[in-house]
Amino acid sequence: MNQKDTLANEVKCLRGELQQVREDRDRQVAQVQALTSDVVKYKESTGESCAKLEYLMEKTKSLEVCSY
User: Fold this and answer.
1) Which long-range contacts (CB under 8 A, 24 or more apart) does 29-32 make?
2) Which of 7, 10, 43, 68 is least buried, going by the fewest C-beta atoms within 10 A?
3) What mean pLDDT do residues 48-61 have?
4) pLDDT tens digit sequence for 6-52
5) CA 34, CA 9: separation in Å to the nearest integer?
6) Domain extent for 52
7) How many domains does the chain have?
8) What is the C-alpha end-to-end distance of the chain, expressed in Å?
9) What is the pLDDT of residue 23?
10) Distance CA 29, CA 33 (A)
């Protein structure tokens, strides 16, 4: 009977640990998804900024040519 109780207690502890691992995994997955979303937004923003910068540089060059 004592061995059965010991094993039942061990199973209970292992289930608790497994639940904790699952919760940690879910939390990390959510964090990765949030960071991935941030990276996508950053890349889009950077791309737009680069396109605007190129446009403004070309505009500046054409204005400099016209002013001479």
Assistant:
1) none
2) 68
3) 91
4) 999 999 999 999 999 999 999 999 999 999 999 999 999 998 899 99
5) 38
6) 1-68
7) 1
8) 100
9) 98
10) 6
Name residue, tokens 């010991």.
6
Lookup: tokens for 5: 């109780």
Nearest CA to 22 among 14, 34, 33, 10?
A: 14
Q: Three-state secondary structure along 4-43? A: HHHHHHHHHHHHHHHHHHHHHHHHHHHHHHHHHHHHHHHH
DSSP state of 68: -
- Amino acid found at 45: S
Residue 39 and residue 46: Cα distance in Å, rounded?
A: 10
